[in-house]
Description:
With 270 residues, the chain is of the alpha/beta class. The chain is 34% helix and 17% strand.
Amino acid sequence: MNLDFTDAELHRYSRHILLQEVGAVGQAKLRAARVLVVGAGGLGSPLALYLAAAGIGTIGLIDDDRLELSNLQRQIAHTTARIGRSKASSAAEALTALNPEVTVEIHERRMDAEAARDLIPRYDIVCDGTDNFSTRFLLGDACYLHHRPLVSAAVLRFEGQLSVFKRGCACHRCLHPEPPPEGLVPTCSEAGVLGAVTGVMGTLQATEVLKEIMGIGESLAGRLLLWDALDTRFRTVTLHRDPGCALCGDNPSILDLSAHEGATGPVCAL
Ligand SMILES: [Zn+2]
């Protein structure tokens, strides 16, 4: 591992390097890492900003949406002046302004089965900040099949959820075997969300990504974090791997992404 840092890097990351658990080795791991952020929205904004600030070497941003006025209540990587611009390129501008040491790769495309097969193997770790079940299930299946950890967050109204899915621990299908029928669970555009709630969950997501890359602390894999902002209460529940799971079970039936072929769910970021 390359432990050579410029004076500017040592200065920029000095508060990280001071931490015994991080140090120069942890910072070098962050610099060598490639992280894919799916959705440059409410979760993706704080997530990608903190990853850039932390010195992740390469951040991929995938989003095929354009910035709208109603996004700005929570999607803080963007600005009013950039309404109408591609969200991926607008967020990339914010990340580069914050930390020019970081390489940002812009993917202005829909996260479908083809994009998953193309992009996921090119990154070390994937973060899900999307707002629909078809993309969540596609990412969960694709990350499992490509052996990539998935850091997945979700928010609605005043509540948030977070987990890490890795081989050997419960997968997303152990938690929910199938996506709920369309329209059963409201989206944020139907039910609303407090902007700061996406900020907290995206920031927790960034923290778990940094932990996974550096291999520090206790991984959230095999656990689900639940937060109720109105009650100010965090809870963690243990997730058990289901031996009958179609993806990670003893006799899996999902062996590729063919079930996701032709799916046309929108990639709206929260
Ligand atoms: Zn499973």
